[in-house]
Amino acid sequence: MLIIKSVDDALQLSHAYGVQIVELGHALVLFIFSVIVGLIDSTLDDWGLHPTFIQSGIFGGGDHQDMDVDSKVSHGDKRNEHREQLRKANAFTAMEILGKLTENKKAMILLRLVHLNMPEKFNGLLQRLQFMEANKLVSSNLKSASQLLVRLSANIQRVLGFQNQVNKRQLIGALIDIGSCSSTSCSNFGAHRAACWVPFDIYMETAMDGKQLPATSAIDILTELTKTLQVINRASWQETFQALWIAALRLVQRERDPLEGPFPHLDPRLCVLLSITPLAIVRVVEDAGEMPLSSLQGGSGSGNTGAAFEQGIDGRGQASRRQGLISSLRILGQFSGLLSPPSSVVISANNAAAKAANFISNFKNGSDSFGGSIRGDTHGKAGGTMLHLIVEACIARKLIDTSAYFWPGYVSAPPITSLSDSSLGQGSPWSTFMEGAQLVGPLKNALIATPASSLVEIEKLYHIAINGSEEERTAAAKILCGASFSRGWNIQEHVVHFVVKLLSPPVPPNFTGPGNHYVEYMSMLHSVLFGMSSIDNVHILSLHGVIPEVAASLMPLCEAFGSLVPTSSLKSSTCDDISSYTVFSCAFLFLLRLWKFYRPPHEHCITARGGYTGSELTLEYLLILHNSRIAVQNSSAMDKPSKVSNPPETSSQAVYIDSFPKLRAWYCQNKACIASTLSGLSSGNPVHQVANKILNMIYWRITKGGAISSNPSTLSGSSISGSPASAGEDAYQRPVLPAWEVLEATPFVMEAIVTACAHGRLSSRDLTTGLRDLVDFLPASLAAIISYFSAEITRGIWKPVAMNGTDWPSPAANLLSIESEVKEIIAAAGVTVPSGSSGAGAPVMLPLPVAALVSLTITFKLEKSLEYIHGVAGPALENCAAGCTWNSMPIIGALWAQKVRRWHDFIVVSCSRSAFKQDQGAVAQLLRSCFTSFLGSPHVAASPIGVGGLLGWNISARGARPHMAPGFLYLRVCRMIQNNQFVNNVILGLVVDTARESATKWAHANSPRLKSSQASLASAAARAKEVATLGASLLCIAGGVPLVQLLYQETIPTWLLSSREGENRDVGPMSCILQGYSMAYMLILSGSFIWGVGATSSAGSFSRWATIVRVHTDFLAGALEGNISLGCDPATWKAYVSCFVGLVVNFAPAWIREVNQVTLKKLAKGLRGWHECELALALLERGGPEAMGSVAELALASD
């Protein structure tokens, strides 16, 4: 330390660079850099050039002192001439020394350390070189030294691009180098496999699972996934964007002929293709710091310091991403099989094609007036494809311009010249609306059915919904939630924003109270809530990532309307069906759909590893997400202007559940009811009194003969069940209570009537009638009913009841058919499961709570206006079925199939999922089938492979039975699996086994020449990478962060520690090496899919990710030191560690800075022991400023 301090004091390095010098190597790095910069500054000074950016200090300049020879009086012209020649010679000598010094490999390593860890200092060096380059024409000295300057600049360019890599002449280095996507596996996006891009397909198809409503925006996820795969696959942006578009097109084609049923259909898939994907590409382009589109035509803009050097190295200048997008779009026309539009969007595609044709026609005719869109089915012969819709979506986001219309083959039909500009506008209801027409009659219906084309139209609608009359507000809200919401792809993010904003209307200017101002907007809120509640629309909200904002907006509505006493004064003046009960019920059930409210609290607990035991959300978590977004928005609101991909946010205030006492009270009660049995109430308790009133209402209706009356607050003659409603004498039997009081008493009502039924005091039919009457009275009470039944099923204290058609409905008519079709679907996916049927003569049984719940749900009407009911009842019913000790889903499915015959195929598909929830063996079979279907079976030559084999081309064809490919079935069941940690071991085993088989085939090739060929090795390594990519994708989808954390901290360490003598018998070294390679690749990919390859994660996830990486690298370092005894083959261990480090160095260098410095040194030492010195250098080089000394010492010690 004394020597280091003396060196530092003499050279003033700590003072000049503002860092603490603690290692001799660190001092050496800064000294070499100081010498280089000092030589440049001295040369510039000798040539009379004085850049203004050079500051005083070690870089020369301000504190420069003349030498003694310069300060003395001149004694003659000859001496002055000699001195000038010496000065000139010194300058050229310095330039030559700089050229030789910067050519040295070790000096390049030291300079690169400054570039990586002190970019602002390295930019000073680049500024000097740019200054010298800029002054070559005005300085004779620089002109004469131009060759030396070119040499120096070229050396610095090599420093910027220099990277220590594994030795490609060794086997491990060759494997890592093979890791890039080959053209054969990535360019063919058709029926053949494209393994390196399959994560796109898997994520998109997973996002279509109607049972899940992720709170994270699909735009954000797809943005990070795109950047990650581009890096991992070492692909061009054209290849990357092409793969992204192909995956989105396949997503749409998979649902061309959808099954009928309550699940997301085509609209969410089109949303992914035409809204989410373009918005994700906008983010990718913006992240590159690209210039506006208009500036691309006039040349590149001025970049930051050293941009010329950077662009010369990596070939990814500012315009490369946008040009890659354009190239990918032009190539899409080759995939005609994917571009055929589904029947429901043929008109939109034809309109887009006609718009381009007319644009070209107007352009050729010299007219520039055409800029609008074409509406209506007037262009049936325009030949529109999905490509035309994609191009329009990109033009709307300013990713490309209308020059795309002139691409060869884009407009296949002749221009449509018979249409004038005026005729184009006449068919547009939006033009009529913008001219001031009233939102009534046919115009309102046309606007609901026709998507808006501009943000101006949506903004005008929003202002009408807030400031118009009650009729205008209602109409505007319905229009906003219509086709503009579901199919206004080019402005969909803005429509979503304004629709969510309508849930929080401002206080009217003339509102003086009393009460809540939301009542003034009752009709409008009713329209918005019912419009947003459709299954497709809720899923679109989730894709755009606004679920936390929706939850925060619904909470005050629930608090306000649930506290009102339903009276005639609290009804809409425009519609008798709208009351405080209906608005509250829709808002409340909508809120509950956003998380699994019926799950026991322990399923949301955080485990010892820091992750959730399940993948379900909670209300608290949604609010945390919302509030964190608000904090980020408020802190960065003034940093940069709003962009097209980021519409204005809905709220600027944090929301807390404590601000809503009624909602909080119910929330706590619901969790308590699910977690434990109900406690008795004294007769004087207010809740007991309310429960008695409800029970009196139920029993009064039963004794009147079972006719179900309507909601007393509406007296409208309509009900959820569709039973005839009566008014008059029945109305007074309905208690007039705030909705919160009814919900608070419902669990005790349930306890009373279910107990009475179990003891024979109440018949099963009367129980169903009573429950149905309760839901008709207050639809929101369905939530309390579901929570009660879910809890009771979990406790398992109720005896099964016979579904015999006498006491309870019978599924016998089609149960055997349902079970047979379910077995066929599962068998077609390559899975064999034991039959769940008890035989033809055995009684069909269900637990009493399940029987009661399914009996209640099959009484509900199947109307679009009641999707808010079915959206809660369907998933809850499936959850209750899963709580049975036997597979009861086929029984429930058979009952529903009898009620809704057109849902038969959907019900069969849903029932097929239930076989996997508690059967780990079936899940293992399904996973093996996923790998076989994707990679191809060696026993079936004609078996489909690639994405088509994994996910299928469609779910079912017209008139055929539904068919689910193994991967599609896995994506629908993987997040339902209980105790899914075993999935890690199954997937890792499949990855390792496949890699071993590939290596065995390579090693046993008949030709000795083939055995040693690079092509054969590349084939084996490529297959290992394919299987690792598939395994990482399936693992991340199944469990997300918890499973990936388990993989890093337990699964792979356990595999490496365990002895597998039986498995590795007769296995050659190549098999062992490829096993290690495939495990390392799977590990890196899994982490990359969750956290990305950069350092852009949020603070919380960043901290957790860093901890996980540290734990794993600490394990590796300990094993390298010999402190841990390994059970795997030494070749596997060496391959795993080398490939892990090499892949991190190449693809995720940001991870390395989170590893402890001591651990890095241990890893580097172990790699040097394996003669992987270059890899050890590359690892330390990326370890941050603290590792600079170690890198310098290792570089100097290396040959």
| Biggest sheet, spatial arrangement of strands | 1-2
Question: What would you report as the Rg, rounded to the nearest angstrom?
Answer: 35 Å
Low-confidence stretches: 57-65, 182-193, 290-318, 375-380, 415-425, 604-615, 641-645, 706-718, 723-729
Strand element count: 2
Proportion of residues in helical segments? 55-70%
Structural class: mainly alpha
Total of DSSP H or I helical runs spanning 4+ residues: 54
Beta-strand percentage range: under 5%
Main sheet overview: 2 strands, antiparallel
For the residues shown, what is the average pLDDT?
82
Cα distance, first to last residue? 27 Å
Molecular shape: globular
In short:
The chain crosses the membrane at residues 21-40. This protein has 1199 residues and is mostly helical.
Write the layout of secondary structure elements.
Elements lengths: L1 H10 L1 H5 L6 H23 L21 H4 L5 H27 L1 H13 L1 H16 L5 H5 L1 H16 L9 H8 L4 H4 L11 H9 L11 H15 L4 H17 L12 H22 L19 H8 L5 H13 L3 H4 L6 H19 L21 H11 L24 H6 L2 H6 L6 H9 L5 H13 L2 H11 L2 H5 L4 H11 L19 H11 L2 H9 L3 H16 L17 H14 L25 H18 L24 H15 L10 H18 L35 H20 L5 H14 L3 H15 L4 E3 L12 H14 L16 E3 H10 L9 H16 L6 H11 L4 H10 L6 H16 L10 H6 L14 H8 L8 H22 L4 H4 L2 H44 L11 H23 L7 H22 L9 H18 L9 H13 L3 H9 L6 H10 L2
Antiparallel strand pairs: 1-2
Q: What do you see in this structure?
A:
Among the domains are: 2-161, no CATH class; 171-178 and 982-1197, no CATH class; 804-843 and 895-973, no CATH class. About 9% of the residues have low confidence. The protein is mainly α and 1199 residues long. It has a two-stranded antiparallel sheet. The radius of gyration is 35 Å and the shape is globular. The longest helix is centred in the last third of the chain and has 44 residues, at 1014-1057.
